[in-house]
Amino acid sequence: MNNDLTNLLAVRAAEHRPLRVGLIGAGKFGTMFLAQARRLKGLHVLGVADLNPQRVRAALARAGWPETQFAAKTLAEARSSGATCILDDAAALIATAELDLIIEATGVPAAGIAHVLLAIDYGRHIVMVNVEADALAGPLLARRAAEAGLIYSLAYGDQPALICEQVEWARMCGFEVVAAGKGTRYLPIYHQSTPATVWDHYGFTPEQVARGDFNPQMFNSFLDGTKSAIEMAAVANATGLTPQPDGLRFPACGVDDLPHICRPQTDGGQLAHGGTVEVVSSLERDGRPVFRDLRWGTYVTFRADNDYVKQCFGEYGLITDSSGRYSALYRPAHLIGLELAISVLRVGLRAEATGAPNGFRGDVAAVTKRALAAEELLDGEGGYTVYGQLMPAADSLRRGALPIGLAHNLRLRRPVAAGQLVTWDDVQYEPTNPSVRMRRLMEKTFGPQAQG
C-alpha cells in the first residue's frame, strides 16, 4: 500500500472514513489551521472548542468557511453530516465518539495538561501546539501517551517541530549536530520589557495597535525571551541536545555566519559546547539590523568529520566557516498553523510524531524583571514581573527553580532581587493544584534520583 500521506488521505475520503479531528483553541494558530483544513478531503474537523464560541465563528469566517460548514448544533450531528460543531466544552469534544485526535492550541499550560490527560483517558492522539504546557510537563505527558499506545506530537509549522525535523535530517545523513535553533528579534534590554513597553520595542504606533487584534502580554512573551526559551526547551527535550550552562546567548547572526558563530568557542565560535540549542538575533547589540537575518526561520549547524566530506561541502556550495568543516542549512520562514495539517496527517494516518519529548534536558525558569517585594503576585509569561530563562534541567532541579509555566497568580513569600531566579521556596503555592502535582511528578520521574 502506498504510504504517502496524500494517498492515505484520499483512501479515507473514498471510503467515507475521514480522519476526525478536534481543535481546542481558536486563536491565531488554530485559525490558520482551519483556513487550510477545509481544503483537505478526507479530513473532518469534527468540532472546535473555545471558551468563547463567538470567537470560533469569527475565526471560521476569517478562514473562509461558509456558515453551512459549521452549522452542526451537536457533535452527533457533526459526525453524521460532515459539518463542524462549535462548543465551549473541550471535555465533551475529547469524549465524543469516533474522534481520532485532538489539537491542543490554547497556549495555557494548565489547560493543556488537563486536556492531554483527558485525551489519553479517551484514547485520542495529541498534536500539541501548546508549547507552554510542553515545556512545563511535556516529557511526562509524552511518556503517559506512549504507555497508552498513543502519539503525542509537537506541532509542525511551529518552530520546534521544524527544528526537530532539521536535526533528524542531519543525523540521518550521518552528521554531528553542533547546534539547532531559530532566529528572533533580541536585545538584552528586552528582558525587562512589559506589556506597557512592548509596542515601543516593536515600533507599532498606537493607531496600528488600535486597528489590530493584538494581545500585549502574548507579544511581550516573544520579545522578552520567554517564548524563545520555551521553544528551545521543547527542542532539547525532543532531540537530546543540551542547553548551555547559561541558557541562550542570542548572538547577532545572519544566515551566512551560522557556521562561524554557531560552533563551539573552542573552535572560534560562540557556543559553550556543541550539541546544543541557540537562538540568533536579527539585531546587532547596538540595534542595527543584521545582514540577511533569520528572524522568522530555523537552522541546524553540523560538522564534517573528515577531509572528503569537507571537500564535498565546498563542491556543492554549502556555506561553511573558515575551516570548511562547519556548515549549516536553514529555513528562512515558518508558516505556523498553515502547516499544521502535516502533523495531523502524520499522527492520524501513520502514527508518526513530528517531534516529541523523550527526556527532560531543558527547563524554563522564572527570573525577575525587577526587584519584587514579599506578597507581590507573579503574572506569568510576558507579564510585568518575570521572564523565562532556559536552563539545563539538571541545574533547574538542583536550584529548585520555579518553572515559568507555573509563575502565574502565585504570591511571593519573600523579596526577590532584580534579575534573580525565582525558586519554589520563594512562592506560596498549592501542592494539590493539578498542574503543580504533574510538574512535581515529572521532576521526580526524570530527576537525578530517577537516574539511579
**Helix content bin:** 25-40%
Strand order of the largest sheet: 3-2-1-4-5-6
Structural class: alpha/beta
> Which regions contain 5 or more consecutive residues with pLDDT less than 50?
none
Can you characterise this structure?
- The termini are far apart.
- This protein is globular.
- It has 3 domains: 5-158 and 337-350, Rossmann fold, CATH 3.40.50; 160-186 and 225-333, Dihydrodipicolinate Reductase, domain 2 (2-Layer Sandwich), CATH 3.30.360; 363-451, Antifreeze-like/N-acetylneuraminic acid synthase C-terminal domain (Type Iii Antifreeze Protein Isoform Hplc 12, Alpha-Beta Complex), CATH 3.90.1210.10.
- The protein is built from 17 helices and 15 strands.
- α6 (109-122) links the parallel β4 (101-104) and β5 (125-128).
- The longest helix is centred in the first third of the chain and has 17 residues, at 131-147.
- With 452 residues, the chain is of the alpha/beta class.
- α2 (28-37) packs across α3.
